[in-house]
Amino acid sequence: MVLSLFVISCEDNDDNNSTPAIPGGSGSVELVQTQNEFVWRGLNLYYFWQQDTPNLADSRFNTLDEFYTFLNTYDDPETMFNEAPLRNQDDRFTFFNEDYRVLANAQQGVFKTNGLSFVLTRVTSGSSEIVGVVRYVNNNTDASSKDVARGDIFSAVNGTPLFFNSSEDNNLDLLDPDTYTLNFATIENGSAVSNGKNIEFTKVEQDINPILITKTFDIGGKSIGYLMYNRFTSNFDDELNTAFASLAGVDELILDMRYNPGGSVRSSVRLASMITGQFTGQLMLRQRYNDKLQEAFSEAQVTDNFVDNISGTSLNSLGLEKVYVIATDDTASASELVINGLRAYIDVIHVGTTTVGKNEFSITLVDDVDNQYIFDRTNTSGIAEGNLWAIQPLLGRNENADGFSDYTGGFSPNVTSEEALTNLGILGDENEPLLATALAQITGATIKGIRFVKDPIKPIMSSDHMTILKDDMYIDGDKIKDAMLEIKEN
C-alpha cells in the first residue's frame, strides 16, 4: 500500500525517498526552492482532491530531476499551489502562512487584534462606497478602553474613504496595519456623513475568549438559556464547560453563532455534547478523506463520537432534545458542523440567514518529515531549520450520523431574520432583533418589524475574515498523527 510505504520510509529521515510517488536515487538538478518540497509531498498524501489533481498524481514525475525542476519553477509554496496548479477548482479554503508559529498561536486564540469586531457593507446597493459597522468589542482589549460600541459606523481609515469595487479593486488594506485611525460617520439619505469622531486603535497579540455572553431569561414560566459563542478555540473549552454549568436546568437553549467562523473540530464535538449529553459514545461525525487515506484508515480512525468529559472533567450537559441556533452568512465550518451533527439526533431550529457552507476540514502541515509533515505544537524540533512555511490544506469532509455532508450551499434558516444597518440592537438584550425572533419561536410571542428590515447588512467582509484563520475548520493534528503511527506499527 502506498500509504504504508510512506509511513515506514519516513524512519530513515531521507526526504528524497520518503514517498514512492517520487523516484529515488540521485540526479543532477539542485533543489533551490527547498520549501516547496514538503508542500508537494504533504499534498500528495493528505489533500482531499489528490486523486483528481494531475500535478499531485503519484505518477506525475519520472525522475528526481524532473521533480526538482518542477519545484524550482515556483518562488514559494503558495505560488506553486495556485499557479502549477495544485489547487482543485472546488477548493475555496486552503491557505498558507509564512510563519507556522503565527498560525499555531491563532488556533489557540492568540493573535494580533485591537478588539474590534466589525462588518464591511455597502451603504446603498450598487455603490462602491462602503462602511464598517461595529458588531461588538472584545473585553480587555485596546478597543474596550475607547469610546466605541456596537452599531457605531466608520467610513474612512486615516482620513481615506473606504471603497470596494471587487476583490481586486478596493482599499481594504488600509485596515491591515497594527495601528490606524478610524473616522466615524452617520448614515444620512443613503450616504455616510462624518460625525467628527476619530479614534486610533492598536493591535497587540493576545488571547481572545470566544464566549461573549452567557445568560438566562425567565419568560412565560420557561427558563431559556442564551450563549453567544464566537469561535471554536479548544484552549477555552474548559471555560465553555463552565458556561454550561451556569445554564443548568434551562428548558430551552438559544445558541448564538451568528458571527462564528469556525475553528476546532474537537471543540465542536464537545459543544454538541454539552447541548445534549444523552448520546455519549454514539457517532457524531465521520470524516471522508482522499482515496489513499480512506483506504488505509480504520472506522475508528475516521469517526468522532459524542463525549462526556474534557480530560477527565465531566461535561455540564443539558440533555436537550431541541436547540435554537442563530446563524447567518458569517456562520461557517465548525459552527455548521455542530448544526449538521445535532440534526441527526435532535431538532435544530435555525434563525437568521443562510450559512456559508464550509463542510471541509483541514490540518496544519509543516516541513517535519519524521512527524509525517503534521504540525505538533508540543515538539517542533523536527521542523526543517529555516523553513517556517505552513500550509492549511483541506483534508476531507465531515458527514453526520445520517451520512449527510452536502451543504456547500449553506444551511437555510427555518426563520429568516437579518441584522439592520441602523437597528442592530444590544447583544444579549431580549429586544435585539435576532434574539427576539428566536425567543418568539419558543414563547409564541408576536413580533413586528423584526424579521424583514429595510436596510439589511449585506457583508462584503468581516473582521474575522481579515485574520489568519478566516473561517477555517481544523482537526487536531494528534488524531491523524496517531492514525498514521498506528498504520506504521501494523
TrEMBL record:
**Keywords attached to this entry:** Hydrolase, Protease
Statement: the UniProt record of this protein carries the keyword Protease? yes
Residue ranges of every copy of the Peptidase S41 N-terminal domain listed in the record: 35-95
Q: Where is the Tail specific protease domain?
A: 224-361
One example of the protein's molecular function in GO is: serine-type peptidase activity
What SUPFAM superfamilies has UniProt attached to this entry? ClpP/crotonase
**GO terms (BP aspect):** proteolysis
Instruction: Tell me one Pfam family matched here.
Output: Pept_S41_N
Which InterPro entries does the entry link to? ClpP/crotonase-like_dom_sf, PDZ_sf, Pept_S41_N, Tail-specific_protease
What name does the UniProt record give this protein? Carboxyl-terminal protease
Which organism does this record belong to? Spongiivirga citrea
